[in-house]
């Protein structure tokens, strides 16, 4: 690889495709207009069916000088690798994208998926933690 080129690879491609497939299965079966909690329950059912390990409503503490100053909860942590956040709506809000970026940074994870269950379609966005590539173990 030449000096100026950046190697671009998908992070966890097989797992990502599997998660996105589950999202579409849920949306295609339930359709639009439901509360987030029902999509969340259906996603959990499909994750179990696909034998993926996951945790729901995962508590991630926010520290400042070794003191917990905040609490954050992830919708899903899948295979201890990917954060999945689900929202109801037709657009990706800057606030939701920033929220997942912050979760990734605090949790030290590389990949998050934001899923919007909209009125006409399901949309998803992969969010990468750029800090995970420049972190040092000091």
Write the layout of secondary structure elements.
Elements: H1 13-30, H2 36-49, E1 54-64, E2 67-78, E3 82-88, H3 94-107, E4 111-117, E5 122-128, H4 131-134
Helix pairs in contact: 1-2
Q: What brief labels describe this structure?
A:
Lambda Exonuclease, Chain A; five-stranded mixed β-sheet; 5 strands; 36% helix; globular
Task: Give a verbal description of the structure.
With 138 residues, the protein is an alpha+beta fold. 36% of the residues lie in helices and 32% in strands. A 5-stranded mixed beta sheet has the order 1-2-3-4-5, sandwiched between helices. The two termini are 29 Å apart. Mean pLDDT is 87; it is low at 1-7 and 134-138.
- The number of helical runs is 4
The CATH class designation is Alpha Beta
The low-confidence parts are 1-7, 134-138
- What number is the mean pLDDT? 87
CATH architecture: Alpha-Beta Complex
What is the number of E strands?
5
Total domain modules:
1
Q: Whole-number radius of gyration?
A: 16 Å
Tell me, what's the shape? globular
Percent range for helical residues?
25-40%
How is the biggest beta sheet arranged? 5 strands, mixed
Q: Ends: how far apart?
A: 29 Å
Strand order of the largest sheet: 1-2-3-4-5
**Helix-strand makeup class:** alpha+beta
CATH topology annotation: Lambda Exonuclease, Chain A
Percentage beta strand: 25-35%
* Strand and helix order: HHEEEHEEH
